[in-house]
Amino acid sequence: MAGSDKSAIGSAIEVGFGPVPGGVAADGPDGRWIHFAVNAANGSIEGNYRDVQGRLYRMNPESGKIERLGSSFDGSFDQYVLLADGREVAVGLKGTEAQLYLIEGDRATKLAGLAGTYAGLVSAKGANSLLVQFSTINNPQQVYLMTDPQQPFNLKKLTDFNPLFAERAQPEWQPYTWKADDGQSVEGVLIFPPGEKGAKHLRMFTFIHGGPADADGNRFGANWYDWATLAASDGWLVFRPNYRGSSGYGDEFMLGIAPHLVSKPGRDILAGVDALVKDGYADPNHLSIGGYSYGGYMTNWLITQTTRFKSAVTGAGAVEHAANWGNDDMTWDDAWYLGGRPWENPQLYQSEAALFQFNKVRTPTHLVQGGADIRVSYVEGETMERALQSLGIPHTFLVLPGEGHGLGKNPWHGYIKVREELKWLDKYDKQ
Fold it and tell me: Residue 135's CB: how many other CB atoms inside 10 A?
């Protein structure tokens, strides 16, 4: 909770660290240092608990001294590896790109890579070669061999999964930047229907990422959670906003979400929608919205703030914060974001909750929820469905039996989820 002195090293151990999940790495043959990472939204070693971006550290096991590495980098670190010669290479997210960086003390030097997203680093034991995964919005993730870590652009392709995508008409994309209502610059991604890059007055689907410590960018997505390119192929201009609270834009930007957990990023998103209408990309009469997890939180909130969206698709998103604090398996994040436990800041718990403004909702809404979700309790979905029903708002509620937050029990459930979401969007805004 906010104000506590929870140590982030515990979070690092819990979530796993090192070159592979759950691993640790000794620096050099003498084993003098233990390296570890604290991923985004898992706190920080410095000071009281704060959900900052991903950071890299090393610890001297004899003295217990901890040093932060690559502190000059204002993005978010994720995975890292130690090379055979002791050098450290890490994946760093900055804006819409996840690139490789050479870490030397406080310095983080960007290596010359290809535009896109690097991930899944694995280092060789006796050489400085790396196995990496790489993808772009239109190119599925593949495994590559990188024989020289100084040259991430020089990749030897080892896999060729899903070649079918290369045989189909593909959406095109571009970054998009706008100003929030307080003047803050905010970035996102626009994904156009195939062959329509730069087209104007398109029907637009605002698709909000979860987290909130995540960011949309130049990486491949094709599953029940990330189906933006599928929506684009169905004729939607897809707007993916990296609102305040997103990682990859500096700690201050990420921390800007607290304590106004939904209203602050909500204004960022609506300002982006306004800008896209003003710039002529989006047809103001053909707007829809959706998201899952925190993207569901934001969707639920935004349909209380405006009636401009013709439809909404929301999944596993809370409509209030007190019961969610009590039922969530990660109770500390709600309390940290909202400045205390429910009885310590009751006004904010209510003012930042969609439920208490549902009298303003007019948007036909499709809900989806895992029946066994303990990250965002199933009771949140039931509460929202009850509210929509009592207001006479057109809605459906798809419950996936036995599924948790990640919908990992039955792959058919993910297929059904996306099928029904696309059907709902098309029902209220045919192409």
Answer: 18
* Residues in Cβ contact with 419 at an 8 Å cutoff, skipping those fewer than 6 apart: none
Preceding amide of 259 cis, omega within 30:
yes
Residue 2 in any domain: the answer is no
In a domain, 1, yes or no: no
Domain of residue 400, CATH code: 3.40.50.1820
Provide the domain limits for residue 122.
8-162
Instruction: Tell whether pTM > 0.70.
Output: yes
- Residue 301 in contact with residue 290, Cβ under 8 Å? no
Q: How many Å from the N-terminal Cα to the C-terminal Cα in the chain?
A: 46
Nearest to 56 by CA among 196, 64, 40, 109: 40
Q: What is the pLDDT of residue 30?
A: 54
pLDDT in tens, 307-365: 999 999 999 999 999 999 888 887 777 888 898 999 999 999 999 999 999 999 999 99
Contacts of 219 (CB under 8 A, 6+ apart): 98, 116, 117, 135, 136, 137, 141
The verdict on 189 and 295 lying in the same domain is: yes
Structure-block tokens of residue 331 = 């109770």
Domain count, the chain: 2
